[in-house]
Structure formats: structure tokens, C-alpha cells
Amino acid sequence: MTPGKRFLTSDEIRPLAERSDMMGAWLVVHCWGVVALAVAAFAFWPNPLTFLLAVMIIGSRQLGLAILMHEAAHSALFRSRRANEIVGEWVCGRPILAELHAYRHYHLTHHRFTQTERDPDLVLSSKFPTSRASLKRKFTRDLTGQTGVRQLAAQIMMSLRLAGDHEAVEAANSDFAQAFKARDLWQSFPVFIGIIVLMGLLGEWWYGLAFWLLPYLTWFQFVLRVRNIAEHGATEVSENPLQNVRTTLANPIERLFVAPYWVNYHLEHHMVMHVPCWRLPEMHAALKRKGLGGQMRIARGYGAALVEAGWKTA
Predict the structure, then answer these.
(1) Could you give the C-alpha distances from 261 to 26, 27, 115, 192, in angstroms and in order?
(2) Mean pLDDT, to the nearest integer, of 76-100?
(3) pLDDT of residue 181
(4) I need a labelling partner for 104 at 20 to 30 A (CA). Which of 49, 96, 172, 302 fits?
(5) Domain range for 289
(6) In angstroms, how far is CA 16 from the centroid of its own chain?
(7) What is the value of pTM for the model shown?
(8) Rounded Cα gap, residues 98 and 159, in angstroms
(9) Is the pLDDT of residue 20 over 70?
């Protein structure tokens, strides 16, 4: 049973689950528009600060594309399945070398078995709480591009290894480390490289390297990790939907740089996974009206979530 039905009636859930083509299209346009504005800001005011801000903002929008692909995987971005499949795959997923169908395969398993032994994401959350030193090492690897380069190399090697091997492709679907990433890179790389080339054609030749590849290898990897930690790190290993996942109350700065498109409302998403992301604040309010606020695992900011994961531990 959907966890949310333990706390909300079908009549309460139904309007929350209503999808909107207009809102879905706006979110996609907004995401790419922010990328364009970040590059334009540097082009008009080129200096180290606008460069750094552009890299951080674009990295967060690359996470935004992953979030919108996630929405499409739940058929929550648009009303029609076809729109979800096409836009989720080619406009949101492929530009960040992700693959909608592979992502959906493992992610629905995560929803079904959240924080149990059969959860494919348990390999991530089981590492927390950890020490501050461990978190600093992870964040350093992310921000210096070590994580991104290593994962991209692994993705390329897996793609070459699995080329033409359908049985191996199916087996790889159960491998969390690569499950959400595109294995048929011959389809994804042209999209990824095409964005880099287009940026270079519209601006300076190096814009694509600086404003797509660099954010992908650095800030995107960092915010992916922070998001993963906040969602399930150091939460209860149980089937209690109020405690085995965390919602993080994000301020405007955190929403800009770390948590776009209401991804911070993760407990609410697990309650009813097909509720569109932009309606999750409404679900949060509905659960609180039921008197559940004190029982829900909520962090007041990403700093607080990292503290729970071990940031203050020596």
C-alpha cells in the first residue's frame, strides 16, 4: 500500500497527485533558462565571482535535470506517458548522461523496499552517520573533480563492456553504482557533447568545457552527494515512512545551489511517489495538519542534515 494512504484519504491525495502539462513544461524551460542566464551573466560581467557562481548554479541545474527526469520516471512531469518518456529521456536525462528507463528500474525498487535489506540505495545510507573527516574527504573528491572523472571513466568502460551483450545489460540494472546512468553512450554522448559545442559556438570556444563539463564533474557531483545524504543518511533502518527518510527545510540559497525543484521534500515524495514535485509543499502542510509534524524526520536546513550524518563527529 502507498505509505501516504495510512495518513491521508484518497480524496485528500487525489488533488495533490494532479499533474499539469503547463507546469511540467515551465519547469523544463526554467531549468535550461537558468543555465543560459548563468552563462550570460558571466559573458556580460566576466570575473572570478561570476565564473564561480555560474559553475555552481549550472551544477545545481544539472541536478535539476536529474530531478525532472525523476519526475518523468514517476509519470509526474506531464499528463501523457509519451511526453514523460520523450522529455524525461532526451531533454532531461541524456544531457547529463543519465538514462530514464534504467533509472526507473532501480528507483521503483528503492521505493518498494525503502531502508530495508532489499533497498538498492541502502549501500549509500548505511555509511552514515560517519565522521567529519570522512565527509570532508568525500566532498573534496567531489569538488576537485576526482569523483566525476572516476565515475565518467567507469561509465565509459561499462558501456564498452556491455556493448551488444544484452544479458550483461540486464544484470547491470541491479548494480546501483551505474544503474541510473546511460549505458548506450553512443546515444547520450552526442547530446552531452552537443551542449558543449553549442555553448562554444554561442560564446567563447571554451564555454562548453567551463560551463557544462566542469560543473558536471564538480558541483553536480557534490550536490548529488549532499542530496543523497540528506534524504536517507542516518535515518531509521525500518519500514516506518515517517522516520526512514528525511525532509530538509531549504532556504532560498539552498534551493538555488543545492536543492532545486522541491527535491528537499523527500519524506513527502515517499508518501505518494506520483505527486508532482511542485505539490510536495502542499503535502507537507497536509501531513502537518494531521498532527504528524512531531513524528516526521525533518532537518531545518542542509547543515542540520549533515550534522545528523556526522559532520560534528571527530
Answers:
(1) 11, 8, 24, 22
(2) 95
(3) 67
(4) 302
(5) 3-125+132-309
(6) 21
(7) 0.92
(8) 12
(9) yes
